[in-house]
Amino acid sequence: MARVDRGAADVITSDGHHLAQYAAPLRRATVDDPVALPCVGDWAALTRLPEGRYELDAILPRRTAFVRGGVGRDSRGGLSGDSRGQVLAANVDVVFVAEPALHGSDFADLGRVERLLALAWESGARPVVLITKSDLVGEHLAGLLDDVAAAAPGVDLHAVCSVTGEGVEVVRNHLGGSRTAVILGASGAGKSTLVNALAGEEVMETQQVRASDGRGRHTTVHRELIPLSGGGLVIDTPGIRRVGLYEMSRGVDLVFADIEELAEECRFSDCAHESEPGCAVLEALESGELPERRLESWRKLQREAAWMARRTDARLQSEETRKWKVIHKSMRGRGRP
Ligand SMILES: Nc1nc2c(ncn2[C@@H]2O[C@H](COP(=O)(O)OP(=O)(O)OP(=O)(O)O)[C@@H](O)[C@H]2O)c(=O)[nH]1
Ligand SMILES: [Zn+2]
């Protein structure tokens, strides 16, 4: 599924692109459940109607999903049946976290890498960290990569330069076997430039092009699913570009597996790692094994995740109340003569 609109989707079959209208059962299923709506990256079952049109009958089960809003996938066991979330992209295999080596005058932001990694883990896809614009930091690159590696334990990490093409082949290898990727990263991280380098042609408008063309031009068709010449797909949707920090407590645990592991060694099981005796986290901080910055980052993301969870709970509760009000009302209605 390359692009989705209200009531119809642009689907790619072995013989090209087709517009497929949603079949009635699918339309009905999506009324109460936005998660059941087709989205970019979905695989679908189609029927070719006698008159040559295509109809979209069903979506095949998703392997992975970027879900925005509502309840996370795990909290309610599975994607469907959750009436609140919206799937931004389905069946993504690889999530590239793109962080520029130099952003303005700042070196790569480790906190941002950790945050995007958490999001990537949450989707079920495999994260890979890319330090983009590697040409901008000269001999500082090696040290920078060491720092990033410490913030992304157990995750593949590569330096890429879309200008010289260095590292682009390594990135392409992650897409072998026709895998599907999304690229997360701040504005100006070099995502579009990288997609162009991967595609070997200008498929995406970059900031440079946008700036020199001026605003208000709408000639470029925004492509949301970009097939690469050497195999593999990149999904780039406005939703994925804006994706924030949603229900990511499990993701946070995975990104900070080293701290979680330390915490198991603390004398008290409910240790807050503030000033408790026998705190393994504070000991690691003392010995230099755990960088102060990383502990701070963990605390910050945990606070955010907790806040998100509370907000989600509140919304769930109010929706639940609303639902019951409607049911009560209709029962009262039926009771009347
Ligand atoms: N020196 C250098 N500059 C780069 C590299 N990759 C991208 N740039 C420049 O960085 C700027 C931003 O690149 P884009 O690819 O438009 O960034 P983006 O992440 O797609 O940005 P948004 O579309 O705003 O999200 C452009 O001026 C690029 O020319 C690189 O490897 N080295
Ligand atoms: Zn502790």
Structure report:
- With 337 residues, the chain is of the alpha/beta class.
- The protein folds into three domains: 3-60, OB fold (Dihydrolipoamide Acetyltransferase, E2P) (Beta Barrel), CATH 2.40.50; 86-241, 3-Layer(aba) Sandwich (Rossmann fold); 249-335, Probable gtpase engc, domain 3 (Ribonucleotide Reductase Protein R1, domain 1).
- It has eleven helices and 15 strands.
- The chain has a six-stranded mixed β-sheet, sandwiched between helices.
- Helix 2 (110-123) crosses helix 8 (249-255).
- The longest helix has 44 residues, at 292-335.
- It is globular and about 75 Å long.
- The N and C termini lie far apart (51 Å).
- The model is unreliable at 70-83 and 214-221 (pLDDT under 50).
- The structure holds guanosine-5'-triphosphate and zinc ion (ZN).
- Zinc ion (ZN) binds next to helix 10.
